[in-house]
Input
Amino acid sequence: MKTYIIAEIGINHNGDLNIAKKLIDIASLAGCDSVKFQKRNPDVCVPEHQKSVMRETPWGNMTYLEYKYKVEFQKFEYDDIDRYCKERGIQWSASPWDLDSLAFLMQYDLPYIKIPSAHLTNIPLLEAAIASGSRVIASTGMSTLKEVDAAVEVLKRGDFALLHCNSSYPAPLEDLNLKCIQTLKERYDCEVGYSGHEFRLGTSVAAIYLGATIVERHITLDRTMWGTDHLSSIEPQGLIKLVKGIRELEISLGDGIKRVTEDEKKIRKKLRG
Output
């Protein structure tokens, strides 16, 4: 089965459509299947006590609410993203962080809706997402099995997949617990993938060996860029290496049936007579 690779742009575009397009180009060049953004209504998502907190940004000092609007794409940008992705031959989607954003995304023909780990316990959002008829992919970071059980009770009403995830940014290797991919597959009998926030690439490739059929990684033009997610993202060359590693593993896994290959037959004849 071909692994579905999601390049998470998230908010690493820093509110700049040109940066978003460069990241789309990189994901397309690397061979990813889709890019993913994040969609929020800041008035709903930002807690009241944080809205007026001042923050230093590349655009000067502003309130946290003003900053969240600064990095939030609206319809004009998403219309352009939709057109641009079609030109580049790559799919796109986004994670809605509220019901308003889910309704906004329903304007587009998206291959899936992604539920972030932060909202796995947001039952109204899960219910609305699955009721939309879209395929739903949900990350399970920072969640207990009891919380995942409750989410799956809603998600199993439609087409869904789960992603094993550790929500630390970046995630320590000793906390990745990749064997949970198998745990989720056995417990819920559904498609399971992996959303990684670690520095390493090999761990995400190894997730395929453990049964992951979806891999999601944050991408950036440069880890030193301003913003909260850049440090735990992978740069262009890393993304190219990651996709190549995944595709090579897919080829090399085989079907598990022991056989003598055509090339081996020649060697066998030479060495055994």
User: Anything to note?
Assistant: The two ends are 38 Å apart (CA to CA). The chain has a mean pLDDT of 95. The domain at 4-272 is CATH 3.20.20.70 (TIM Barrel). DSSP finds twelve helices and ten strands in the chain.
